[in-house]
Amino acid sequence: MSLFKKIVSKILNQDEQQDDPNVTKLADQLKNADLDYKFAQLFTASGGFFNYCGDEAEALQVLNQIVKVEGIKNVFCCDDDLQNFLNVTKTNFTKNLDINNDAAFITCEFLISYDGRVMLSYNNILHYHSSRLPGKIIIMGTVSQIVRDLNEAMMKIKRRGNVRNLTSISGSQSKLDAPTQDQTKLFLILLED
Fold it and tell me: What's the pTM?
């Protein structure tokens, strides 16, 4: 593994090897597929729950369904736009991470089609370490956030300037930097933009 990849995987808290050999095999099979299709397949294969929505009304329905099915009562949400969604669904939320939060509703930086991972930063989770996030994470992303690989994501991050607290997560098999943490349920609401 190159020095650059070792540094980047250290920054993103990834192991140097793929988490699951089946995901690696699927990634090889999908190497010529469209980026959005490849991302959806690999995200789902790693245990994530993928929901494509054509507009905000559909995204609101999906969010409401997730909240009801998962029995979510109190959500960590630091994004003003996402808080509007929670207000419509009448879901309690806090702007700061709280011990009573049973879910997080966040945005993301990029969706990486190479391995189905979701890149997060300070913009999405504030100063909190990703291992402190609740066991259920709902991510709102857009199709334009899908990138080919980690290199492309890092180039775009570098162009933006000061982005801190980078990490990445994937599916329910994500350990979120803490090997002793219970399995995380990761839901993605992908919105057409």
Answer: 0.82
